[in-house]
Amino acid sequence: MPVPRGRRLCNTAPYMLYCCSRALPHGTSMPRGARARGRIRRVAARLPALGSGNCRMPLLFPTAYPPRGGSGLAFSGGKGMPRAPYNVLVIPWYRAGSCPEYCVFKRKDMGVWQFIAGGGEAGETPVQAAVRESLEEAGIAADGMLKRLTAGYHVPACCFSDEARAGWGPSVIVVPAHCFAVEVKSRVIAISREHTAFQWAGYDAAYSMLRFDADKTAMYETDQRIRRNDWQLR
Description:
Strand content: 25-35%
Order of helices and strands: HHEEEEEEHEHEEHH
Oligomer: single chain
Shape: globular
Number of helices: 6
Number of domains: 2
Largest sheet: 7 strands, mixed
Number of strands: 9
Distance between the termini: 51 Å
Structural class: alpha+beta
CATH superfamily of the largest domain: Nucleoside Triphosphate Pyrophosphohydrolase
CATH architecture of the largest domain: Alpha-Beta Complex
CATH class of the largest domain: Alpha Beta
CATH topology of the largest domain: Nucleoside Triphosphate Pyrophosphohydrolase
């Protein structure tokens, strides 16, 4: 059963998955506890997309946070920082002979594998946000090393909390994600508390591990650009 209304709502992907799987209207409060999180993970792993009315949500974007600390937590920027209306995705890769390897990360909350992902903070450019997220989530110093990709995706603005959306205005309906690749010189990674593990893998192995289509598409572009030695966007 959903918890009573009146508590802070959770507008995250797991929240939407929960509503969709039970045909509940958007705005239902998020249940808490290990059983609820387990149900959300099982639903997310079983279905590529769920929908009921206005709550349809394809699983194409990589960042999703279940509630923590007894309250709903939606997409947000850094602690105490206003949220900028965009996301970033960063793909670390290592030149292992003729075949590049990619570093994928296992999320602590959902148990899925993905690349570095997060949101921009107010006043940051997407490049600055990607540099910060790379350092915070993987210990990668990416300043001056990022390669922008053509691949991208969008997240519905309704997936963000009212607090995160403050100042965006009603014209922000979907939030873009900017994708980057970064070549690292060693396989040394320092994961954050958001992840439980990381793994270096070749293209095929990494592709099979990734949960989200957006990550797979961005990795495909990265792999092709590495092989062609072509980083010019057209």
